[in-house]
Amino acid sequence: ELVAIDREIAAIQIADAVAVGGSPTRIAKANTYLAQGDSYVAQGKYTTAINRYQLAWQEAYAAWIAATMPK
Q1: pLDDT digits over 43-57, tens only?
Q2: Would you say 59 and 33 are in contact if contact means Cβ atoms under 8 Å apart?
Q3: Number of alpha helices (DSSP H) and beta strands (DSSP E) in the chain
Q4: How many Å apart are CA 57 and CA 16, to the nearest integer?
Q5: Residue of 8, 18, 12, 33 lying closest to 63 (CA atoms)
Q6: Quick check: 14 and 60 in contact, CB under 8 A?
Q7: Nearest-CA neighbor of 13 among 55, 50, 60, 59?
Q8: Is the full-model pTM beyond 0.90?
Q9: 50-54 CB contacts, 8 Å cutoff, 24+ apart
Q10: Strand extents, DSSP E, the chain
């Protein structure tokens, strides 16, 4: 299912951001978006859930990229 795949992509990116010591603020925001997505799935609002998973991925990616880019 597309929604489950989107969630998994976001969750993996969050885990990667944590693993490299990414920004705790961005990671917390990503986790908030992930939880919001889960809530929307439970309500049957799949388009909104996918949007929240995208936001979660974006925040986690920003945390990861900032932690892995050469200074």
Answers
A1: 999 999 999 999 999
A2: yes
A3: 3, 0
A4: 11
A5: 18
A6: yes
A7: 60
A8: yes
A9: 50/2, 50/3, 50/6, 53/3, 53/6, 53/7, 53/9, 53/10, 54/6, 54/10
A10: none
